[in-house]
Write a structure and sequence with these properties.
80% helix, mainly alpha
Length: 439
């Protein structure tokens, strides 16, 4: 049988193909299974790696071209293709030491610290506190003189209302003002936690995009190395280049999202918009709910400011009825109106109970659904990682194209993102549930 190439020629091509397949397989598989925290790096480092890949593979085609012409080659040219395949391990290795490190002097930010910072410097909360103080002062001026009236001087219903009802009204207003400040504080806590978790999600997403870029770089290097030795077509290289361009665009978008999320957090906290934080993400929660729905509803009814408000309004209506009964008669026009107002106050309490119970139930169900979503998204992420690994194996054995590998990588990247988003949604659901309880 006649062979188109010499025995040395075939040895050269075979050795290069084996090296490309073996080293590329290990790198792609490791890239799919390496955590994002071990594969992260700066965009500058990623770009430099891409340049190195192009430089490393530029020399290889000359060897392959020489072979194609049928010239007799020694073992040396075959080994020249090995560096091109060896560089496929570069992205996974070089990104590990390039993990993001906070600059010196950057302040750490935990969830608790973010909430405390917002309570101290949030402009909305500061305004609410000043409004409550002004309302207390105005109310004090309006009822102070009548409240000081001696009881033995009260001989009419109007005088009794001036003393007792106005006094009760003033005390209720003062209590509600304080409770309103507390309610505003709860909203500020909720907002601070949401902004905090949004920044964590943006940073986690950025790390995933860096990992995706590293996988795309690896795929391009392997595709180029395979093309250089004639085992893959030029279209595989072009498809890998398109995949790399898409990963770089996604990385840029993720970097912008981090800056926007950081600015939103700083704005809510009331600090310098350009302030940098080293956000501590250990506060992410995935624990199940520890109380029943009925317990949650009971807790909310005992803590929510809305219940305190309607109860105070009922107390005031009952006091008005009592004074009319003592200084006049309930059969009068004022008496009938006062009794109707008392019944309305009772209905308002029942209506508020239903509203709170409904809100707590919705928050409780959303929390359970968010927890289940984490389990589902984790399984989907693991399946996508295995699919990506198997597609790489098929590619290395000539049974899959670069496009199929890119599609599998995109699916893995999407599933990783969805998992991170599920964790974020659960943490926000925890915050909403605590707010519904009145905590």
């Amino acid at each position: 049988m006649n062979f188109p190439y010499s025995s040395k020629k075939w040895m050269s091509i075979s050795l290069a193909a084996v090296l490309t397949t073996a080293i590329g397989a290990g790198t792609l598989t490791a890239s799919a299974n390496t955590p994002a925290t071990e594969q992260t790096g700066t965009q500058a480092a990623a770009t430099e790696q891409a340049k190195e890949a192009n430089a490393a593979t530029t020399a290889a085609p000359s060897t392959a071209t020489t072979d194609a012409k049928g010239q007799d080659t020694s073992a040396a040219p075959a080994s020249q293709t090995a560096p091109a395949a060896t560089t496929a391990t570069t992205p996974a290795d070089t990104t590990k030491p390039a993990a993001a490190t906070p600059a010196a002097g950057v302040e750490e930010l935990t969830l608790e610290k973010a909430v405390q910072q917002a309570l101290e410097t949030n402009a909305t909360l500061a305004t609410a506190r000043l409004d409550a103080k002004n309302a207390d002062l105005n109310q004090m001026l309006s009822y102070k003189s009548s409240a000081d009236m001696p009881s033995d001087m009260i001989e009419s219903l109007d005088a009794a209302k001036a003393k007792y009802v106005s006094n009760a009204q003033g005390e209720m207003t003062k209590k509600l003002n304080a409770l309103q400040v507390n309610a505003t504080e709860s909203k500020i806590k909720l907002g601070a936690q949401q902004a905090y978790y949004n920044l964590i999600f943006a940073q986690d997403d950025l790390e995933l995009k860096k990992q995706s870029l590293s996988r795309a770089q690896t795929q391009l290097k392997v595709a180029k190395a395979a093309f250089d030795v004639g085992t893959k077509a030029k279209t595989d290289v072009l498809q890998a280049e398109m995949g790399l361009a898409g990963a770089q665009a996604n990385l840029t978008s993720a970097q912008n999202a981090v800056e926007v999320a950081r600015m939103d957090l700083n704005d809510f906290l009331g600090v310098d918009l350009t302030k940098q934080w080293k956000v501590v993400s250990v506060n992410k929660q995935t624990a199940p709910i520890k109380i029943t729905l009925e317990q949650a509803q009971e807790e909310a009814l005992s803590k929510r400011i809305e219940m305190t408000k309607v109860q105070e309004e009922l107390n005031l209506a009952e006091l008005n009825v009592k004074l009319i009964e003592e200084y006049s008669a309930l059969s009068t026009y004022q008496g009938r109106v006062a009794r109707n107002n008392m019944e309305k106050a009772k209905l308002a309490i029942e209506e508020q109970k239903r509203a709170i119970n409904k809100e707590v139930a919705q928050a409780y169900l959303n929390l359970k659904a968010a927890l289940e979503a984490i389990d589902y998204q984790k399984k989907a992420k693991d399946s996508a990682a295995e699919s990506y690994r198997l597609t790489n194996l098929r590619f290395e054995n000539g049974l899959a194209t670069t496009l199929e590998v890119i599609q599998a990588e995109e699916e893995l990247s999407n599933r990783e993102n969805q998992y991170q988003k599920a964790v974020l949604q659960y943490n926000l659901a925890v915050v909403n549930f605590e707010t519904a309880l009145g905590n």
